[in-house]
């Protein structure tokens, strides 16, 4: 998770009609995530995500310190970019939930102490991420329910998402991001991710997830 300029983040997701959440004045949260899916309805595959915390559609921007804290309740994750490395999950993700999946090479190295992932599209590197696991968190740590938002072909959707994580580790900082020459890399560079220190990094040893049907929303 990275703190990035809210105005720049809003410009990136303007096409969705959604509004960036600001936990601090002028700052937004951008998250980078990579996942190795081992067993599920969509088969085994690798996935990378660029996401932003957003306010639920129709909610006014909170004001004041306490207002901002209360305003973070109910925030969702807008999935801006979601490359995968298998065709079946790409087709299902786009047609069933409207997730902006695209095909990419996503090599991962999860065997060592440092967990690594890269995304390469058409021979061009978009991003490389290395994460150092932190301290073990108590059982049940994490966010069990999240509203995931997406926008594909001009339609914005909300998909309720339930998570059950285990073997969770967290630390301040702990992530190194290297950007390439892909257009998405330029977006991330404009957000300052080529030089920003992560607010926190989280690794999850095992994660069960389920997605409800997507519903269209009017931002």
TrEMBL record:
<dbReference type="InterPro" id="IPR010451">
    <property type="entry name" value="Acetoacetate_decarboxylase"/>
</dbReference>
<dbReference type="InterPro" id="IPR023375">
    <property type="entry name" value="ADC_dom_sf"/>
</dbReference>
<dbReference type="Pfam" id="PF06314">
    <property type="entry name" value="ADC"/>
</dbReference>
<protein>
    <submittedName>
        <fullName>Acetoacetate decarboxylase family protein</fullName>
    </submittedName>
</protein>
């Amino acid at each position: 998770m990275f703190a990035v300029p809210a105005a720049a983040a809003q410009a990136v997701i303007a096409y969705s009609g959604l509004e960036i959440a600001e936990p601090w004045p002028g700052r937004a949260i951008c998250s980078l995530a990579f996942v190795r899916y081992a067993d599920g309805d969509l088969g085994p595959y690798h996935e990378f995500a660029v996401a932003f915390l957003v306010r639920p559609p129709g909610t006014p921007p909170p004001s004041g310190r306490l207002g901002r804290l209360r305003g973070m309740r109910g925030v969702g994750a807008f999935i801006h970019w979601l490359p995968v490395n298998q065709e079946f999950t790409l087709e299902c993700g786009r047609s069933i939930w409207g997730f902006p999946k695209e095909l990419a090479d996503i090599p991962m190295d999860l065997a060592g102490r440092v967990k690594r992932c890269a995304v390469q599209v058409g021979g061009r590197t978009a991003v490389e991420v290395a994460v150092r696991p932190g301290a073990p968190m108590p059982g049940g740590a994490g966010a069990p329910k999240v509203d995931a938002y997406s926008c594909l072909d001009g339609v914005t959707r909300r998909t309720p998402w339930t998570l059950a994580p285990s073997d969770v580790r967290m630390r301040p900082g702990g992530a190194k991001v290297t950007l390439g020459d892909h257009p998405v890399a330029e977006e991330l560079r404009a957000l300052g991710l080529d030089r920003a220190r992560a607010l926190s990094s989280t690794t999850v040893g095992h994660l069960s997830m389920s997605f409800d049907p997507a519903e269209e929303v009017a931002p």
